[in-house]
Design a protein that fits this description.
- InterPro entries: Methyltranfer_dom, SAM-dependent_MTases_sf.
- Keywords: Antibiotic biosynthesis, Methyltransferase, S-adenosyl-L-methionine, Transferase.
- Homodimer.
- Its EC number is 2.1.1.288.
- The protein is α/β, with parallel strands linked by helices and 286 residues long.
- The chain has one domain: Rossmann fold, CATH 3.40.50.150.
- The protein is built from eleven helices and eight strands.
- It has an eight-stranded mixed beta sheet with strand order 1-7-8-6-5-2-3-4, sandwiched between helices.
Length: 286
């Protein structure tokens, strides 16, 4: 059964933040997306699908790689993200980019439509990600590849954030969250197949992939200031946490984060934190 309420909340959160998503003086999704493209190696003339494309962190680097004879099709469940990415594509004069609102869990493409499927920090938001991975195998051509990123889920740390953030978020404060958005619930949702590399490999093999490679590599996240990071956090997945906290707890969390991040900042107030990221690649087993 599809988790409709969860999907609607995710779509609404990203739709509302689309105009400022991955902006506001913080660099993370862009560098991670470019690194994923480097690892996936889209070739000239290839057909690429970018799932949960957002504003194009993977989409535009991939479009450069495949060139005018190739095609990159970006899909996102949030209409605002597609609108912003489309504006960017027009501004760049790209003719090899197609953008469409679509639920990435149920792609509606014919078999063998793509040579490469990519997704940076998007697969993790699918309620039934493993089933979706099997569907991507079906729409990949023979010897087609998949490449995606996820956080490195580590025991005792807050999901989706670098380990440095865990002591900055009081556990008592999180008790004000609805059950499904508490860290323990998020861990149960994702860690069953993403935490251990061997479990991840086995899941992909059951979905019809081979040559699974798991690379754990940090991505440098930079922010102009602690305040800039907190504002930016309202535009990405952490927005789901912010919007479910009562106002008093939002204020408390904001103050604690800024105070803690100030201690990690340089003399100019800027932040630079290495974020553990898992890069996964595989090939269709046919």
């Amino acid at each position: 059964m599809q988790d409709t309420s969860y999907k609607e909340q995710v779509a609404h959160a990203f739709d509302q933040s689309s105009s400022t998503y991955d902006r506001l003086g913080v660099q993370f999704f862009g560098p991670m997306g470019r690194r994923l493209v480097d690892i996936a190696e889209p070739a000239v003339g290839e057909r690429v699908l970018d799932i949960g494309c957002g504003r194009g962190a993977c989409l535009f680097p991939a479009a450069e790689k495949v060139g005018p004879k190739g095609r990159v099709h970006g899909i996102d469940i949030a209409p605002g993200m597609i609108d912003e990415a489309r504006k960017e594509a027009v501004g760049r004069g790209l003719r090899n980019v197609v953008l469409e609102v679509m639920d990435a869990e149920s792609p509606t493409f014919p078999p063998r439509s793509f040579d490469l499927v990519m997704g940076s920090y998007s697969v993790i938001f699918l309620p039934d990600a493993v089933s979706a991975l099997a569907r991507y195998a079906a729409i990949l051509d023979d010897a087609g590849r998949i490449a995606f990123t996820s956080p490195e889920f580590r025991a005792g740390t807050f999901p989706f954030l670098p380990p440095e953030f865990t002591p900055l978020i009081p556990r008592a404060l999180l008790e004000h969250l609805p059950e499904q958005w508490r860290p323990e619930a998020l861990v149960r949702r994702f860690n069953s197949w993403l935490e251990r590399a061997e479990d991840l490999r086995q899941a992909l093999e059951r979905c019809g992939y081979t040559s699974v490679d798991v690379i754990d590599e940090p991505v440098r996240m930079t922010a102009l200031s602690s305040e800039a990071w907190v504002e930016w956090s309202h535009t990405q997945g952490m927005r789901l946490l912010w919007q479910h906290l009562p106002e008093a707890q939002r204020t408390e969390l904001r103050e604690r984060l800024i105070e803690g991040l100030d201690e990690l900042s340089d003399d100019n107030g800027a932040l630079a934190i290495d974020v553990p990221v898992r890069f996964v690649t595989a090939r269709v087993a046919r």
